Amino acid sequence: MTHAASPAVLLHVARHAAAAGADVLARRDPAALDATSKSSDSDWVTAYDVAAERAVRSVITDSRPHDIITGEEFGTTVPTGRHDGARIRWSVDPLDGTTNFMRDIVYYATSVAAADEDGTWLAGVVHAPALGRVYWASRGGGAWLSEQGRVRRLAGPDAGRGRLLATGFSYEAATRSAQVGELGALLDGFGDLRSLGSAALDLCMVADGSFDAFVERGLHEHDVAAGALIAEEAGVVVSRPRLRSVLDGGPTEVERLAAITVAGPADLVGSLTGSLAGSAPDVSIERQS
Predict the structure, then answer these.
(1) Would you say domain 164-276 falls under CATH 3.40.190.80?
(2) Which residues contact 147 (CB under 8 A, 6 or more apart)?
(3) pLDDT digits over 199-215, tens only?
(4) How many CA atoms lie within 13 A of 55 on its CB side?
(5) Which of 172, 279, 277 is nearest to 218 (CA)?
(6) Is 32 exposed, middle or buried (0-12, 13-18, 19+ CB in 10 A)?
(7) Residue 269: which residues within 8 A CB-CB, separation 6 or more?
(8) How many Cα neighbours within 13 Å face the side chain of 107?
(9) Angle made by CA atoms 205, 18, 110, in degrees to the nearest 5
(10) What is the sign of the dihedral through the CA atoms of 145, 147, 152 and 157?
(11) What are the structural domain ranges in the chain?
(12) H helices within 43-84, ranges in order?
């Protein structure tokens, strides 16, 4: 069993792990959703979220049993005992776009990413079974999309077209209100707005040129880990929140809700970040996510 941690090796594992999760999602049965609310009437978990994360974890653990896994549904698992080589941490969102999945809206995916001990993201995959798309990237290896049997390298948005902004909205009421209030300033210079309900796919669709930029406040690491690397490897500038690692007890809910993720060409990232400067929501009660 090898513990090599090259981006290519990790990408191989990530692709298999994401495919395992996506295979669970592809068997969607409306009668078997078993949906329950986590924090609000728009924040849900289904039996498929749980089963998909188990499938992803099984592939990673079989291939790299000493690695750390952080998942949306089962938290962080740190294997005990001696290990050789680099200690990699995986960030897993088994079903990004759960509300879409429940309503049979096609924008949902399994997202799997791997980072080294310094927190540098090395490999990421976003597998969207209802779209028939698999996005992937490795550090220094470019970003790629497989769709309908064709594979193409991604190069970000085309500056010659009208600009389209992607965003999403928080489940937390105060943050969502702040986001709505920010829209006017954010849309300056854009022709229109889209909100798909999956940050992972939003970032991938900046990478493939469908969107010109993406901005959203209050995202979890697992929402963006793979998609942000894919965007970066497509030549897109990505401004990631600087949050404490889950291994250090972070981030708190207040820290997360104030954090902003932005992706796009450098000029758009600068203007979007400037529009949001100093506009953090008033969130006074901390909750565990």
Answers:
(1) yes
(2) 131, 132, 133, 134
(3) 999 999 999 999 999 99
(4) 23
(5) 172
(6) exposed
(7) 213, 237, 238, 239, 262, 263
(8) 14
(9) 50
(10) negative
(11) 7-153, 164-276
(12) 47-63
> What's the predicted TM-score (pTM) here?
0.91
Say which residue the tokens 């290990």 belong to.
83
- Given strand 213-217, what is the order of strands in its sheet? 192-194, 164-167, 213-217, 260-264, 237-239
Q: Residue 218: left (phi > 0), alpha (psi -120 to 50), or beta?
A: left
Residue 257 structure tokens: 């809700």
Q: Quick one: tokens of 160?
A: 């010659």
Do 135 and 151 contact (CB within 8 A), yes or no?
no
The pLDDT of residue 285 is 32
Write phi, then psi, for 259 (nearest 5 degrees): -85, 145
Q: Which CATH architecture has domain 7-153?
A: 2-Layer Sandwich (3.30)
Reading the chain (289 residues) residue by residue, the pLDDT tens digits are 445 689 999 999 999 999 999 999 999 999 999 988 766 555 688 999 999 999 999 999 999 999 999 999 999 999 987 666 668 999 999 999 999 999 999 999 999 999 999 999 999 999 999 999 999 999 999 999 999 999 999 999 987 677 999 998 877 777 778 788 888 888 888 999 999 999 999 999 999 999 999 999 889 999 999 999 999 999 999 998 888 888 888 788 888 888 889 999 998 998 888 877 655 554 433 332 2
Tokens for 135, please give them.
Answer: 């996005």
Residue in the structure block whose two tokens are 């401004």: 239
Cβ(164)–Cβ(211) under 8 Å?
yes
